[in-house]
């Protein structure tokens, strides 16, 4: 396992929080990441599955539990893949200003985020 990349995961998560609101409604977004923001404003608080670290074929190894997504949060699943498409790491939880993003390049990895807020533990099915 590449520990330097794993230690950079919190930095990556912070970047996605910034990206989820900064690239919306841009007409001249040529060559930029396309971010899809979902409108969850009419939905109530839901519970989300939480796991900070889960490697392929293993159970959750860190941060297992449930979190409650407030009105401006959503349940999320983040997946990190090697460039050849092999899964490397999965993480789940509640995320403010969540946005669906696909295949963001991060060093030698690709990162995908999926968001939901339709029902309790919806991120288990993503």
Automatic annotation (TrEMBL):
**Coiled-coil intervals in this record?**
none
Database matches in InterPro entries: LY6_UPA_recep-like (IPR016054)
Q: Does the keyword Cell membrane apply?
A: no
Instruction: Name a Pfam family for this protein.
Output: UPAR_LY6
Q: Which UniProt keywords apply?
A: Signal
What top-level branch of life does the organism fall under?
Eukaryota
Entry keyword annotation includes Electron transport: no
- Which residues are listed as membrane-spanning? none
The signal sequence is 1-21
User: Domain UPAR/Ly6: where?
Assistant: 45-124
Q: What is this protein called?
A: Prostate and testis expressed 1
Lineage of the native species?
A: Eukaryota, Metazoa, Chordata, Craniata, Vertebrata
